[in-house]
Amino acid sequence: MTDSRYLKRTIVKEVIASAFLNEDRALRIYLPPGYNEVLSYPVVYCQDGEEFFNFGRIATYANQLILDEGVEPFIVVGIEVDVKTRTAEYAPFGDRHEAYVNCIMREIIPFVEQKYRVRGDDRILAGDSLGGSMSLHLSLLYPGEFPRIISLSGAYYEESQDIIAREEDLGWLDTYMIVGLQENEYKTDHGTFDFVDLNRRTRDLLLDRGAKVHYMEKEGKHLWGFWQKELPDALLYFLTR
After folding, report:
1. Do the domain assignments include residue 150?
2. Strand, coil or helix: 234
3. pLDDT tens per residue, range 169-213
4. Global pTM?
5. In what order do the strands lie in the sheet with 10-18?
6. Domain of life, per the record (predicted)?
7. What's the CATH number where 86 sits?
């Protein structure tokens, strides 16, 4: 049974008016137990923010890690997305991708860093599927700004691999990658892909360019039922080092 202390979570909902996307964008912000504006905190930015909170249970796990595992308190920012425009925003070939990148860098992050006590030099980007590849692309676009990536079954299509292949030195990058062995024939909105092969190829591209990669394959499908169980270890990987 889940400890009741883990369920006493502080989650703030914010909405920003994005000039780049020409629409409002909702955020869910988890504040750790004992949040104090005198202090400063590491921050985890999540693509698919609503799913990370609802299906990934990231706020509950964060409480558990902080209260029982001795992890330094941290903040989580979930960036919500409309499923109808998700591919257009997350995929590098999407027609809203550049606008979404600008929204994150020029609107969301400045808003969060002005209102909450996050450390700008202590960021983690997290995402599942296209959100995982989106997180990596954002990191490559702004080298050093996001040196730590959590990729849950990242959708590293050919376009994504080409972007990584153009890089020369990724010695500054540290990536936590996991993929399920039952994701070898996953149907997406633009084809069926072997996500295990895509992730293996991406791992090798990153390693060849000097990135540090913590890579795992486990029994699992392309579902939150798989990713949820892996999320605490992914957070521990970065937040206890």
Report:
1. yes
2. helix
3. 999 999 999 999 999 998 887 889 999 999 999 999 999 999 999
4. 0.95
5. 10-18, 23-31, 75-79, 41-46, 118-128, 148-152, 174-180, 212-218
6. Bacteria
7. 3.40.50.1820
